[in-house]
Amino acid sequence: MIGGVQDEGIGPIEWLIGGWSLKGGWNAMRALGTAGAARFFGREGVMEAGELVATHGPTLSRKQFNRLTEDIAQNGIKEPIKYVVYNGRNYVVDGHHRLRAAIRLELREVPAEQVTLPFRGYKTFQDLIHFDP
């Protein structure tokens, strides 16, 4: 039993500070499946990729993005995508490239964490809606 969740034969999982660093990466959580991840993190820790709205376009080169996508395919998403809620929509404030890579890899769910403004370069809700995806 790990963090109140029965280990379902996927190997060791290590709960570290914040609950996001897992021994074996996010692939270990994918192995638990949606129900296992929901029990482990609570629903706020997992979100459908389609529920997140990008607030800017890509800034990585194609080569850098392909490397990131390959890393996520092999190791999973290691850092949750940060978002804020505004007018019922979930706007990404950190993790745009991870989200794009997850969509390219056809991952239905991603680790996500709701944050509040101000957050990094986003000071107000107006900063979120300058980009129409």
Write down the Rg. 15 Å
Task: Tell me the CATH architecture of the domain at 44-127.
Answer: Alpha-Beta Complex
Number of strands: 5
Question: For the residues shown, what is the average pLDDT?
Answer: 74
What class, by secondary structure content?
alpha/beta
Determine the fraction of residues in helical runs and give it as a percent range.
25-40%
> SSE order in H/E notation?
HEEHEEHE
Work out the oligomeric state of the chains in this entry.
single chain
CATH topology of the domain at 44-127: Conserved hypothetical protein from pyrococcus furiosus pfu- 392566-001, ParB domain
Strand share of the residues? Answer: 15-25%
In CATH, what is the class of the domain at 44-127?
Alpha Beta
How far apart are the termini? 42 Å
CATH H-tier superfamily of the domain at 44-127: Conserved hypothetical protein from pyrococcus furiosus pfu- 392566-001, ParB domain
Shape field: globular
Spatial sequence of strands, sheet with the most strands: 1-5-3-4-2
The total of helices stands at 3
Main β-sheet description: 5 strands, mixed
